[in-house]
Design a protein that fits this description.
This protein has 138 residues and is mostly helical. The chain has helices at residues 3-22, 28-48, 57-73, 81-84, 87-90, 102-136.
């Protein structure tokens, strides 16, 4: 495996550990799902780089990919309400700084939303890359 894959998998592992320990009220369902999600991500990379040889690679990799998509959205859906709430409404729920106007706060929230979405997309590019390479057989 190339160095970037090791670094990415380390980031995934550290993110999972942080997610499990940062939220103190995690249920056993959440912890098991987070561990399975991490295994699915590692599995996709291991399949692509021929560390694991399984029959019907397309089926297994598709199941892993679908589970990754499910786990990234469903258990964390309460965090995504930030992205769905219009900035004008969201700014009413936060406390403004001393010298901050309403327009500046709305702009700040829009910028944070944009950068958050760009970060989420950028962090998921290696998984999409590996999955589509497995599916196309390259």
């Amino acid at each position: 495996m190339p160095v970037w894959a090791y670094i990415y998998l380390l980031v995934v592992l550290l993110g999972s550990v942080y997610s499990m320990y940062s939220i103190k009220q995690n249920s056993s369902f959440y912890i098991a799902g987070e561990i399975l999600s991490t295994f699915a991500c590692f599995g996709l990379f291991f399949i692509y780089f021929n560390i694991i040889n399984l029959p019907q690679l397309t089926v297994y990799s598709t199941l892993m990919f679908v589970y990754l998509l499910y786990w990234s959205v469903w258990p964390n859906r309460h965090h995504y309400s930030f992205f769905w709430t219009p900035a004008n409404e969201f700014v009413q729920t936060v406390e403004l700084g001393e010298n901050e106007t309403l327009e500046e706060a709305v702009f700040s929230i829009k910028l944070i939303k944009l950068l958050g979405l760009v970060f989420i997309f950028a962090m998921s590019i290696p998984v999409y890359y590996v999955y589509f390479k497995i599916i196309t057989g390259n």
